[in-house]
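in:
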């Protein structure tokens, strides 16, 4: 891997239309403050889409995302943008395994300035690879019906609408290889 991103879980890549390298890595407890800063930097619209509603307790949310990372089947991936020796979180994917339902569930967000550059799909692919490595056979998520971006990303990543959503939400799932 590169010197700037020694803990990357996939080879760092240069994003189209961005001047710098992007790396995806597993988050640790020491990332709480930076993840909180990342959540705070999201636009109100992006935050509402990520959390399916308004949230103001972003430091608590960041801590919750990282609290279970020491347990098998729970992890958070972070995408960091590296430029001139500095690293900034620009995307996150939270994954947790539900043993009762026998599938993993996830939530994902990408910083507004880095949306529509393919980063969401890269994050989902890295998440699926990690879940497959853990022996998980299915992954699922739920999003608001109005979240056209997430619904499109899910379709692009091979997810199918399960029909389990309600009038406000869409539930989608994918079998992992």
């Amino acid at each position: 891997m590169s010197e700037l991103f020694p803990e990357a879980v996939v080879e760092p890549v240069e994003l189209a239309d961005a001047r710098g390298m992007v790396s995806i890595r597993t988050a640790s407890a020491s990332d709480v403050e930076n993840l909180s800063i990342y959540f705070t930097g999201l636009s109100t619209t992006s935050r509402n889409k990520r959390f399916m509603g308004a949230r103001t307790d972003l430091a608590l949310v960041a801590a919750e995302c990282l609290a279970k990372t020491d347990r098998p089947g729970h992890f958070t991936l972070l995408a960091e943008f590296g430029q001139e020796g500095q690293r900034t979180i620009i995307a996150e994917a939270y994954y947790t395994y539900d043993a009762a339902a026998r599938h993993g569930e996830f939530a994902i967000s990408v910083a507004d300035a880095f949306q529509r550059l393919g980063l969401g799909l890269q994050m989902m692919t890295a998440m699926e690879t990690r879940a497959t490595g853990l022996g998980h056979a299915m992954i699922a998520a739920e999003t608001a019906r109005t979240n056209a971006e997430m619904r499109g990303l899910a379709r692009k990543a091979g997810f199918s609408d399960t029909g389990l959503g309600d009038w406000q939400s869409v539930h989608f799932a994918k079998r992992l290889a």
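note: The beta strands are 13-14, 21-26, 74-83, 86-98, 103-110, 138-144, 160-161, 169-175.
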